[in-house]
Amino acid sequence: MRFLPYKALAAIDAVVASSASPPIDANQLLYVSVQIVASGAPVGVAKLQCSNDFSTDKINSTQQVVTNWSDIPSATVAVSAAGVFLVPKTDLCYRWIRVVYTKTSGTGAITANVNALGA
Question: Over the stretch 71-95, which tens digit does the pLDDT of each residue have?
Answer without folding.
Answer: 999 999 999 999 999 999 999 999 9
